[in-house]
Amino acid sequence: MPTLKVMNGVKIECYSADHLPPHIHASYGEHEDLIIIETGEIYVGDLPIKKRKLALEYVKENTSMLLKTFNLLNPQLLRDEKK
Questions:
Q1: Residue 13 in 3-state DSSP?
Q2: pLDDT at residue 67 in the model
Q3: Which structural domain, as residue segments, surrounds residue 77?
Q4: Which of 24, 28, 38, 71 has its CA 20 to 30 A from that of 64?
């Protein structure tokens, strides 16, 4: 699970062998949000609001790179989607 960025204590990670929809994990202490990359929607999570805003801004500014990273780490999902 590569850490892509750490900002003001918020860690942005993308996991391999993960699930759809393409998303990142934003964590701060014991709190975590799963954020859908393409829409910026919170899939599930409990980040404090200021930390969530920081993570959402990062996703918005880096959507293309995050999608590429998710797809590189999860090639099986692309194969499964094409079936």
A1: strand
A2: 97
A3: 3-82
A4: 28
Q: How many CB atoms are closer than 10 A to CB 62?
A: 17
% of the chain exceeding 70 in pLDDT: 92
DSSP state of 22: P
Phi-psi region of 20 (alpha: psi -120 to 50; beta: other; left: phi over 0): beta
Neighbours of 8 (CB within 10 A): 9
Report residue 17 as tokens: 């062998």
Tally of structural domains, the chain: 1
pLDDT band at 2 (very low <50, low <70, confident <90, very high): confident
Q: What is the mean pLDDT of the chain?
A: 93
pLDDT at 1: 65
Q: What are the tokens at 19?
A: 């699930």
